[in-house]
Amino acid sequence: MQPNRFYFALINLLREAKGHIGIAILSIILIFFISSIILFSNALQQTILEALEAQPDFVVQKIRDEVIVPIKKRVADEIIEIAGTTNISLRVWGRYTFSNTQKSILIVGVDFLDEQSHDALEKIIKSTDLNEFLMDRNQIIVGEGVAKWMKKTKRDKTLRVYTPKGKAVELKLFKVIPKSLNLFSNDMVIMNIKTAQKIFGLKRSSVTDITFDAPNELEWDIIPIKVSSLDSDLRVISKKESYKAYQEMFDYKGGFFLLSFIMVAMSFMMLLYQKYSQVYSSQKRSIGILKAIGWGVGDVLIMKFYETLTVVVISFIIGFLLAWSFVFIFDAPIIRDIFLGNSNFELTDIKLYSSIDWFNITTIFILFALPFFMSVLIPVWRVATTSPKEAMR
Amino acid sequence: MKKPIVTLKDVSKIFDNGTKALDNINLQIFKNETIILSGVSGSGKTTLIGLIAGLDRPTEGLVEVDGVKISKLPQIELDSFRQKSVGVIFQDFGLIEYLTVYENIIASLIPLRLERDIAERRVQEAMREANISHKANSRVYHLSGGEKQRCAIARAVVNRPNIVICDEPTANLDLENSKQFIKLLNGLKSKGHTVIIATHDPIFERLMPNIRKITISNGKIENSYG
Fold first, then answer.
1. Which of A32, A140, A204, A238 is the most exposed place for a label (fewest CB within 10 A)?
2. The pairing of beta strand A86-98 with beta strand A103-110
3. Both A39 and A73 in a single domain?
4. Which of B110, B117, B121 to mutate to test the interface with A (most CBs of A within 10 A)?
5. Interface predicted TM-score (ipTM) of this complex, two decimals
6. Using one digit for the tens of pLDDT, what is the confidence trace for B90-112?
7. Are residue A168 and residue A95 in the same domain, yes or no?
8. Which chain A residue's Cα is nearest to B155?
């Protein structure tokens, strides 16, 4: 290797490794911690947005006195008349809470013979043997969270719910929704629309909402206006609105994490500065010797820059790779609980998209590397600009 | 007429605390000359060689070394002067303890940006000259005083300076190692180096009888003979 400042930086680093190991370990932990959160939150965001993508383009509900009220099935016939609408489906969609455990399930009643505008539902229905499933109206398809809970509470095969009039309905487990759809289906119980109507005390002519698609996005602004004109109580929620709401939530969370990271990075910088001030008072003599044998201030700073760059890059790569493995190979056990542990049913088994947001990664690197360089190079510069005799003393 | 390689003209040095370390020094040292700067501790020897080595600047006066007026040089050029013109052997050897002998020596060549082969050849040559090749891969803190001194010599000559400056070189050596060191200095002289030794060790006068001796007292040149 050419005997240059980089070569000497590596030698210096190698010979004084123990002086850098503590800082490197601290850096790896910091990078691991921050990267894990950012990777997990990005992957979750991506997964949720993918799940949202599978939702129908529009959901129509009827609101009266700010409360969702049943909507007549015939409204669907009127919506179908509006140019540009397709895949119109009727749904009974609502929460049912078990008063003794305060657990709530999401009841989804659909007409299995209709085409669904919800891609994930369509996928579930297509993978179900409808002949067998529809033989018994009380058969249900449940999300993994519900299935686990049923097992835990010894209700392996049946789930008893009550109608508003107090009549018991015994729901029978037919199958469990695949894990890959967990984020969307964890607390979901899919059943025949008529059974759902019975549970919520709805008339046969009513549902909770109507969903539809509009393939031409240019018409997405006008179609809700046309639907609302059918009945002033109708509220039309577009997929775009949900998407925007989630995006805002993630932007807010992202900002929060960035702020937290800046605070952690500042504390880290102070710690580093203190540590390196100590290191460099002991390295003062070495720098003085190098100056005495002809090294300039620039030579010393460049050598220390390379030395720091090596520590920063190695720590960053190790910390980041550990974080990546932790999130995408080991499924981020603790972070997962923090992010998803408050779910109604423990949402512990979701399939995350392993996406990497390079902007965030670059931001972490800069916010990590900058204080690191400053806390090393400032004390070095102070020593290097004193006279060699003074520094060697 | 012989041209001096070191010229000090009306040089004074006053430290920040007001101590006058050197007072109106006028001195000339010639190429391939070996001189001894003697005097008691605190007489100003180390300050004087610090000025010649470009490690410090005078408060007043002119210091010209190897044709360069170093007392007037900007810092960056003074660093470059130290790279090329002088090699210093410090009283405490001035070695980086955690590095090996080889690494301490090659450190002197790094600012010169030499090709690998050339740098390698120079380091091997310097180690051979100082008789320290066998310890090339030993870390300095494992060396004896004599070995550290030889490593310091190798480092001082590796960049092929015209002037080698030694500050109390035998202060940390026993008699045998001091004799070895003087033998090495004689070798440097024979290779054309100008050697300046600041010392109050009488062994130099005994073993190097025919060299010029300058005595400094209270920051002034008291006498010069030889």
1. A204
2. antiparallel
3. no
4. B110
5. 0.89
6. 988 999 999 999 999 999 999 88
7. yes
8. A293
**In the predicted structure, residue A152 carries a pLDDT above the cut 60:** yes
Residue of B nearest to A388 (CA): B55
Say yes or no for a CB contact (<8 Å) between B98 and A15: yes
| Interface contact flag, B110 A12, Cβ < 8 Å | no
CATH 3.40.50.2000 fits B4-94+162-225, yes or no: no
Instruction: Write down the domain spans for chain B.
Output: 4-94+162-225
* A264 and A207 inside one domain: no
Residue A156's domain spans which residues?
58-213
Residues A97 and A41 in one domain: no
pLDDT at B59 over 90: yes
Rounded mean pLDDT of A174-184?
Answer: 77
Closest residue of A to B105, CA-based? A293
Q: Which of A160, A193, A213 is the last residue of a domain?
A: A213
In Å, how far is B16's CA from the nearest CA of chain A?
12
In 3D, which of A380, A360, A362 has the Cα closest to residue A370? A362
Q: What confidence tens digit (pLDDT) does each residue in A258-289 have?
A: 677 777 777 777 777 777 666 666 688 899 99
Query: Hey, are the CB atoms on A11 and B103 less than 8 Å from each other?
Result: yes
Length of chain B, in residues: 226
What distance in Å separates residue B213's CA from the closest CA in chain A?
A: 25
Instruction: Write the burial class of residue A171 (CB in 10 Å: 0-12 exposed, 13-18 middle, 19+ buried).
Output: buried
Which ranges of chain B would DSSP assign to H, the alpha helix?
A: 45-52, 75-84, 101-107, 116-129, 145-158, 175-190, 203-207
